[in-house]
Design a protein that fits this description.
mainly alpha; 10 helices; 73% helix; acetyl-CoA transmembrane transporter activity; AmpG_permease/AT-1; transmembrane; ACATN protein; AcetylCoA_trans_1-like
Length: 238
C-alpha cells in the first residue's frame, strides 16, 4: 500500500510537470550544451575517450569490489542465522538521523582542492568493517538463545552499522564533490551525470556478483547422507 500510494504520487506529479510546466524562453542560454539525444551521446563518447576520464572511470568501477560481500550479503546472512527481519529493519531507524547529519559534516572536508583524500582515507576503515561484519555473522549463532538474541548483540550490530555509514558516506560525498569539481561547467549536466552513473554502477555490479557467488562459495555438509555433497542446488534438494 505504501509503495502503491507513493508510486501514484510520483506518476501524477511528474505528469503534471510534463504538461503544465512551461520553459522560460528568456532565460534559456544562447549556447546550449546539446541539441538532441544523438548530440548528447556523441558528447558522452567524446568525454569518456579522454585519458583522465577513462582512467578515473576504471578506478571507480573497481574501487568498491572489496566492500561488495559485506554490503550485499551481511543482512541476508544475519537473517539466515536467525536474526528476525523486523529487528534488522528497526535497527535502520537510528541510522536515519545519522544519514542526514553525515553529509553536512563530511562536506566540510570535501570542499577543498582535493576532495578524493577523504575517499582514500575512508577506504581502509570500510574494508576493516567488512571483516567485522563477517565476525557478526559468525558470532550470531554463538549468542543466540531460546528467546532470540541478547540486547548487547543488537547494540554491537547498531554500532557496526553506524561506523559503516560513516565510511560509506565519507566515500559517497567525496566522490560526488570530486565529480562536481572536475565537470566542465559548459557541459556540466552531461559530464556530471556520466561520472555519477559510472560511480553508481561501480557500487552495483560488485554487489550483484557477490550475491551470485554466495551459493558456489558456501561450504555445506550433508547430515545423515554419507558420501554425498551439498555443493550444488540439485544435491541440496536431494
Amino acid at each position: 500500500d505504501f509503495l502503491f500510494f507513493w508510486g501514484a504520487v510520483f506518476l501524477v506529479t511528474t505528469t503534471l510537470v510534463a504538461f503544465l510546466k512551461k520553459e522560460n524562453e528568456e532565460l534559456i542560454p544562447a549556447k546550449e550544451e546539446t541539441k538532441g539525444i544523438t548530440d548528447t551521446y556523441r558528447l558522452l563518447f567524446s568525454i569518456i575517450k579522454m585519458p583522465a576520464v577513462l582512467t578515473f572511470c576504471l578506478l571507480i568501477l573497481t574501487s568498491k569490489i572489496g566492500f561488495s560481500a559485506a554490503d550485499a550479503v551481511t543482512g541476508l546472512k544475519l537473517v539466515e542465522e536467525g536474526v528476525p527481519k523486523e529487528h534488522l529493519a528497526l535497527l535502520a531507524v537510528p541510522m536515519v538521523p545519522l544519514q542526514i547529519i553525515l553529509p553536512l559534516v563530511i562536506s566540510k572536508y570535501t570542499a577543498g582542492p582535493q576532495p578524493l583524500n577523504t575517499f582514500y582515507k575512508a577506504m581502509p576503515y570500510r574494508l576493516l568493517l567488512g571483516l567485522e561484519f563477517a565476525f557478526l555473522v559468525w558470532w550470531a549463532p554463538k549468542v543466540k538463545h531460546e528467546g532470540g538474541f541478547p540486547v548487547y548483540y543488537y547494540a554491537v550490530v547498531v554500532l557496526s552499522y553506524a561506523l559503516h555509514q560513516i565510511t560509506l558516506y565519507s566515500m559517497y560525498v567525496a566522490i560526488m564533490a570530486f565529480n562536481a569539481k572536475v565537470s566542465d561547467p559548459l557541459i556540466g549536466g552531461t559530464y556530471m551525470t556520466l561520472l555519477n552513473t559510472v560511480s553508481n554502477l561501480g557500487g552495483n555490479w560488485p554487489s550483484t556478483v557477490a550475491l551470485w557467488l554466495v551459493d558456489p562459495l558456501t561450504v555445506k555438509e550433508c547430515a545423515g547422507a554419507q558420501g554425498h555433497t551439498c555443493a550444488t542446488a540439485a544435491a541440496t534438494e536431494v
